[in-house]
Design brief:
about 800 residues
């Protein structure tokens, strides 16, 4: 070709439309997202407005592994049917294949760990082939840790193998936490556990959790987070047998399936057999794909794609068995599959292709033609790609006469130009070339090849006539059914539109909602108002939150929570949607138990002794980082030191009980309330004989002076004393003492400058003068609970609330549709 005259060679290479009406278009966009959106709009307009069949259009890219997944997601979501050859996308990157491979890895590593535990030898080859640790005896063992992590368990349960939604997962986590909480309660019962006063609150102890650590049977450990318990239950599915099958059934089935496959692999099964066991045991997923594949539209195409990917996985596993002599372990298969950038090894191409847009690389487009071709992502640095080809050992340089010289940059540029020429000549009628032209100086730039598509004449015209445009906006509305329904819905409910326009939009929605396929399934279900958010009326539960015929049970901390924010109380106490116990709550648990031991006389009031007791359980507390654990341990030491200073001080009172449980009933307003809880310490005033209640606080929040006068928790304690909660204590000799007052002892807070060793003490006056205020709070809280008025109250506590994102009192929690 080099011997031809220059003019003839130029004529041969010149890109000129060969058919009447053919055209070439070049578009640049500011971002990759706008490029893909405009390509989707261009393809749909070519199909709907110009009548070009889907199968007569193609999108070509330079690098399949980098570009095809993004184009696939965006074009599929825009309603463009796509066909992608299996070897243009790594098989392990297929959405339908990923959960099967993840489950196979868990089972295979589990089988290896089981064999090592029983002393058996792995056969079928070394399962660590391809593992960087395999040939380095000093490297860590890749199979030393359990492969089923918390994150992977969540992925498997919420994926197609498990099929749980977020609500079921939360219910399962709550049920497992309640089960563990119930199992830990007996360990705390002999010492009274932790006072209910610290059961809720930022940084305070909770009345849930306990555990024994090396002789410290009284010291509780925190109930573990739900996600940790779910992971353990998935590994040991027998834990789920006793739970409600409505939310635990699918998790139980998945756990049993993983165990079955693990035992199958341990028995010598191949990767193909293990994959088939996983697929055969996932009946719900299998049926959903089979049913979805028979339906038209995007859902049907997605189901077809997923089934094709699963079939390709089984074919790959079967061919792996054929190619390799002897058994190939499941881990070998996984390592081989994940190392492949182009995963397919197709033995034959498709003979029948669906009516869909082809998405493929420019290399695979040789010898093919379409009426409309989009060459996408023509960026400088990507096309041309002037990086050196070849492998580490440079096997590509081996030639007939020895080692050949590596390709020069000029030769690489020539190869890239020829590849671009191949892509551009695949179009029979219309060629569209797109690139990103970022506004920033260091942003993406279009390739130099775009300027080679035409020449500019002196008069400003282009030869050949190429349309060149910098597009700075996205399409106004994608030509897809979902976008059409959204626009019609917006017009229907918009009061600013004319009545005629709103009526016309509603009529079109009616027509779309009435469309159905041959099996009677609606083609456009989103057009029906029943599927619209915000259209359903508010519902009410037929079963009340609390039985109005029974006394209403409340504690001091619950009363405080109800009056501060009814919604937070309902979600935390009734729905049990609070977050798992934190390290700060464990801090409060431990300090409270140690204070109770000292107060009851079971442990000597010595800081060294208390710190030894603290060390036995401190590592069981969960903190975000080691430095946080050390910091909190220092705070715990300071809190215990302040407690000992307060304990030894002269207060004109003598202690008579620690962690004293109580339960009394009284009528407030129209309701009978049963108040119950546990008092950290009850003391008797030596001068008057009155009962004084002490409540230890380990949180960082300090109650202000005005709040202290009507502090609900202290008020409940004093009211309980007035109603006989401490009459049975030996120190009061069966008589009913008057409430002498109550106080908060802030163990995290110093009394002031110069008094760092003493805690801040906040006393509340006695209820003898005016008990009406606490009775009024109880009546208001009871009325709010019985009538289910759980409205949010915005205040300082919102900064630490776990439910802020679900709270209608804040913008992030309000309804999207009014």
């Amino acid at each position: 070709m080099g011997r031809l005259p220059a003019a003839a060679l130029e004529q041969h290479r010149r890109l000129i439309p060969s058919r009447e009406g053919g055209r070439v278009e070049v578009y640049t966009y500011p971002t990759p997202g706008s490029e893909i959106d405009n390509i989707a709009d261009l393809l749909r307009r070519a199909h709907l407005e110009e009548g070009v069949p889907w199968g007569e259009m193609a999108v070509l890219v330079r690098a399949g592994g980098r570009s095809i997944p993004g184009f696939r997601r965006a074009l599929s979501s825009a309603g463009v049917p796509l066909e992608i050859d299996g070897d243009d996308l790594p098989l392990h990157a297929e959405p339908a294949v990923a959960p099967l491979l993840a489950a196979l890895r868990v089972c295979a590593i589990g089988a290896v760990r089981e064999r090592r535990a029983t002393g058996a030898q792995e056969d079928g080859g070394d399962p660590r082939v391809g593992d960087p640790h395999a040939r380095n005896p000093r490297a860590g063992d890749p199979y030393a840790e359990d492969p089923l992590t918390v994150e992977l368990a969540h992925t498997l349960l919420t994926g197609p193998l498990g099929g749980l939604d977020s609500a079921d997962l939360r219910r399962l986590g709550r049920a497992l936490r309640e089960e563990e909480r119930a199992a830990l309660r007996p360990a705390v019962a002999p010492t009274g556990g932790v006072s209910e006063s610290d059961s809720v609150g930022e940084g305070e102890g909770v009345n849930e959790g306990g555990g024994a650590v090396e002789g410290a049977a009284e010291l509780p450990r925190t109930v573990r987070p739900g996600e940790v318990l779910i992971r353990e239950a998935l590994a040991e599915p027998e834990r789920l047998v006793t739970l409600d099958r409505s939310f635990a059934g699918r998790a139980l089935h998945l756990g049993q399936l993983l165990r079955k496959v693990r035992e199958t692999i341990a028995g010598g099964a191949s990767a193909e057999d293990a994959l088939w066991a996983l697929w055969d045991g996932s009946e719900r997923w299998r049926r959903r794909l089979e049913t979805g594949a028979l339906r038209p539209g995007t859902a049907g195409r997605n189901a077809d794609r997923d089934l094709d990917a699963v079939c390709a996985l089984f074919e790959t596993a079967a061919r792996a068995e054929e190619r390799v002599k002897g058994p190939l372990g499941a881990l070998n298969f996984l390592a081989e599959l994940e190392r492949q950038d182009i995963a397919a090894d197709t033995l034959s191409g498709r003979t029948v292709r669906p009516d869909a847009v082809r998405l493929l690389t420019a290399h695979r487009s040789k010898g093919l033609e379409w009426r409309v071709v989009v060459v996408a992502g023509v960026q400088e640095g990507l096309w041309p790609d002037l990086r050196r080809r070849g492998s580490l050992l440079e096997a590509d340089r081996i030639g007939r006469d020895g080692l050949a010289e590596p390709l020069s940059p000029g030769a690489l540029l020539g190869e890239e130009r020829r590849l671009f020429y191949v892509a551009a000549t695949r179009a029979k009628e219309r060629l569209v070339v797109t690139a990103v032209k970022a506004p920033a100086e260091d942003g993406d730039e279009p390739s130099r090849f775009l300027r080679e598509l035409y020449r500019e004449a002196k008069d400003g015209s282009r030869v050949p006539a190429v349309t060149v445009e910098d597009v700075t906006h996205r399409p106004r509305r994608p030509l897809a059914v979902a976008a059409l329904v959204a626009e019609l819905r917006a017009a229907t409910v918009d009061p600013s539109r004319s009545p005629e326009l709103r009526e016309a939009a509603a009529q079109r929605l009616v027509r779309l909602a009435a469309l159905s396929d041959d099996d009677g399934f609606p083609l456009v279900p989103s057009a029906h108002p029943q599927r619209w958010w915000g259209m359903a009326d508010s519902t009410e539960n037929a079963v009340p939150v609390r039985d109005p015929g029974q006394p209403l049970a409340l504690s001091g901390s619950a009363l405080e929570s109800v009056n501060s924010c009814g919604l937070q109380w309902f979600l935390g106490r009734e729905v049990h949607a609070e977050q798992a116990s934190s390290g700060a709550q464990g801090f409060g648990n431990v300090v409270h138990v140690l204070a109770e031991e000292v107060g009851s006389g079971r442990t000597r009031a010595d800081l060294g002794v208390l710190m030894e007791r603290l060390d036995t359980v401190w590592d069981a507390l969960a903190f975000d980082a080691p430095w946080k654990s050390e910091q909190e341990k220092g705070e715990a030491r300071a809190a215990l030191e302040r407690f000992l200073t307060w304990h030894a001080s002269e207060r004109g009172r003598v202690p008579v009980a620690t962690e004293h449980p109580f339960e009394v009933e009284l009528k407030v307003g129209d309701h009978v309330v049963r108040i119950r809880g546990s008092m950290d310490r009850v003391e008797r005033e030596t001068a008057t004989g009155a009962a004084f209640v002490v409540d230890f606080k380990t949180g960082k929040r300090v109650v202000s002076g005005p709040e202290l006068l009507t502090h609900p928790q202290l008020g409940v304690y004093q009211l309980a004393v007035a109603e006989g909660a401490v009459d049975a204590l030996e120190a009061f000799e069966g008589t009913r003492p008057e409430p002498g007052g109550a106080e908060l002892v802030q163990l995290r807070q110093a009394a002031g400058k110069g008094s760092e060793d003493s805690p801040k003490v906040q006393p509340q006056p006695s209820l003898r003068e005016d008990p009406a205020w606490i009775e009024g709070l109880l009546a208001e809280a009871a009325d709010r609970i019985v009538n289910e008025r759980f409205t949010p109250t915005v205040g300082p506590g919102c900064d630490h609330c776990s439910f802020r994102r679900s709270c209608t009192g804040h913008p992030e929690g309000r309804q999207v549709v009014d």
